[in-house]
Amino acid sequence: MSKLSTVKAGDALHEREFKPNHVQLFLYNAALWNAHRIHYDTPYATGVEGYPDIVIDGPLMGDWLTQAVVEWLGEDGTLASISYFSSGGIESVPRLIT
What we know:
With 98 residues, this protein is of the alpha+beta class. It is built from three helices and four strands. The radius of gyration is 16 Å and the shape is elongated.
């Protein structure tokens, strides 16, 4: 039986842990042409902008969410679309579990 036949809205999927480092955050934002230093420069984020640490931006969290769903689906289905809302970045996160 396919896992898609039993899943309901609100069911928790498997957890996936993401541990971004400064280089990954820099490269991700460079690919998006997002040069805001709060995403990769700790002294700037903390000293100039007043954040407790670098900020993981919303689009990256959305991409991680998409990856988690696609991995969960596996061969049982295809992700046709995804929608999410992020009200802000996450500061000082050693890991994110979706």
